[in-house]
Amino acid sequence: MASLLLPFLLLVLPWPYVQAQQNISLGSSLTPQGPSSFWLSPSGDFAFGFRSMSIEGNASYLLAVWFSKISDKTVVWYAKTSGEQSPIQVSSGWRLQLTSGGTLSLLDPTNTEVWTPQSVGAADHASMLDSGNFVLAAADGSIQWGTFNDPADTILPTQVLTAPKTLRSRIIATDYSNGRFLLDLQDTGVKLYSVAVPSGNQYDYYWSILGNTTKMVFDPMGRIYIALDNGTQINITYGAAGSLADSYQRATLDPDGVFRQYVYPKKVSDLRSQAWSMVSMQPSNICGAQTTVGSGTCGFNSYCLTDGTKDQTTCKCLEQYSFFDEERKYKGYKPDFQPQSCDLDEEASMMQFQFRTMHQVNWPLSDYEKYSPITEDRCRQLCLIDCFCAVVVYNDQDSACYKKKLPLSNGNMAGDVYATVLVKVPKNSNAQSYPIESSKWKKDKKYWILGSSLLLGISVLVTLVLISVLLFGTNYTVTRKIVPSLESSSNLGLPLKAFTYAELEKATRGFQEVLGTGASGIVYKGQLEDELETCIAVKKIDKLEQESEKEFSVEVQAIGQTHHKNLVKLLGFCSEGKERLLVYEFMSNGSLNRFVFGDVNLQWNLRVQLALGVARGLLYLHEECSTQIIHCDIKPQNILLDDKFTAKISDFGLAKLLGTNQTQTNTGIRGTRGYVAPEWFKSIGITAKVDVYSYGVILLELISRRRNVELEAAEDKKILTYWASDCYRCGRVDLLVEGDAEAISNLKVVERFVAVALWCLQEDPTIRPTMLKVTQMLDGAAAIPSPVDPSSFVSSV
Question: pTM score > 0.70 for this model?
Answer without folding.
Answer: no
